[in-house]
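Hi everyone, sorry if this is the wrong subforum. Our group has a chain we'd like a structural model of before ordering constructs, and none of us has done structure prediction before. Sequence below.
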Amino acid sequence: MRRALIQRRLARVDRALDRAIAAAEAPGAVVLARMRREGELLEHASVRGLAVSRPERIAMARNTVFDLASLTKVMATATALMLLVEEGAVALDDPVSRHLPPGAWRDKDAVTLRHLLTHSSGLRPWRAYHEALLERERRQGERWLGTPRGRQWVLDSICRSALVHEPGAAAVYGDLGFIVLGALVEQVSGRPLDVFCRERIFEPLGMRETRFAPPPAASSSPEAEAETAWRRGAAATENCPWRKRILWGEVHDPNASAMGGVAGHAGLFAPAGDVLHFGWMLVEVWHGRSAALPRERLREFAARQSLPPDSDWALGWDTPSAGRSSSGAHFSAASIGHLGFTGTSLWIDFEAEAVVAMLTNRVHLVAKKSRFELRPRVHDLLREAFAA
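Answer:
Right subforum, don't worry. Here is the predicted structure as tokens:
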């Protein structure tokens, strides 16, 4: 009886997604959820709508690959830093300048790794560096976008920039701090960010389809053909005004694109199954059932940092905000999560042992001004169904 009641309630998730798709909130979605209740694993999968509506119509599938956007911050960069902290290669309260090339980080000696991870460093949240590189290309007649020198120019520009407030005085969510953290991971580890994450996070955790996606090389080799097939298995995103094409299997974020597709704030791609698996591995580590990641370090990174005192940010991760969280009404205070601009999210409740990976392609031919209130509604429906 209970299982039948759960299934009837879970059917509401599909209906909510169908209504949102009909209202043009998103072309499609894949939602995977898992919860442990009284020793039993409860699971749900919803696969709805279209992965691509133009230039072709391709139905969404459970294994559709999504541009995860800012989920990159936590699944790649923050997790990489967690490993480096555990190894003693860096410390959270180290000045950022200690781990970048001499002279690179100008006039910001008070900024620490903890400040960058909590969005409280005082850096501007965002700048259109891709537009500056486009202008350089126009003036010089040489390629800058997506090149190593273009990537370095973006990093240098951020490192030279002035702070807009004192470190720790405010928490303003943004990308530039995580671009710096991605570069810091590379500097400390001696490996490109995508290589470090593949070798130290994705492969050990069994996330076989998770990867960064630099622009493909122009060739007709078997490798290039496989790359083309992979990109066709992705959900499309925006009809980009400056790239003048629908983005399909290439990073949506303009600064990540300008940096060659690999950056600390965006650039990661994965299917929903890998995102759910990552979240569930964190639950297993938290409860001591897995040693895939350092348990006490995970607990440290999941704790609110109070920088400043009213901030909800943990180390890289968001936590539920009372009355207004994208996690909905039922995720406990012992929860972490993050969103991605393209329509992705991951929420993890360590206390309830519940994980929801919700991936949509909401910017694919859908107005950016959409408030996209689907996330809390779906999270509430899932948690209420599992609690039946």
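For your construct planning: The first strand starts at residue 28 and ends at 37. The chain has twelve helices and eleven strands.
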